[in-house]
Amino acid sequence: MKEQDEYSAKGDRSGWRAWIGCFIERVKDNNKEDAQALLNECFSKQDSGEFDLKYLEEIKPRFFAIVKPEAVGELTEAMGHFASRLQ
C-alpha cells in the first residue's frame, strides 16, 4: 500500500484509484464484493462531504474484517496516514 502517499483525503480520486487496487489485492478472496461495496460507500460519503475522521473510525472495523491477516499491518499504516490528513 505504498501508493497511499498519492491519495488525498480531500477528494483526489486518482490517488484513491491507486490505493483501491492495492487494497483489493489484500482482501480475502471471498470478500471482494464486500470490499467494493465498502469502497463505494466511502466514495459516496466523500462526495457528500460526510467523510471525516469520525466516519473513518466507525468504518475501520469493516475494513479489517475483510482484509487478509497478513495485510493488517499495511492497512493499519495506510489508515493512520489517511486519518492524519483528515485532521
Write the layout of secondary structure elements.
Layout: H1 13-25, H2 32-47, H3 53-66, H4 72-86
Helix pairs in contact: 3-4
What do you see in this structure?
The chain is an all-alpha fold and 87 residues long. Helix content is 67%, strand content 0%. The chain is globular and about 30 Å long. It is built from four helices and no strands. Helix 3 packs antiparallel against helix 4. It has one domain. The N terminus is likely disordered.
- The end-to-end distance, rounded to whole angstroms, is 21 Å
Quaternary organisation of the protein chains: single chain
Number of domains: 1
Q: Could you name the ranges where pLDDT drops below 50 across 5 or more consecutive residues?
A: 1-10
Backbone structural class:
mainly alpha
Which key terms come to mind for this protein?
87 residues, mainly alpha, 4 helices
In short:
This protein has one domain. 67% of the residues lie in helices and 0% in strands.
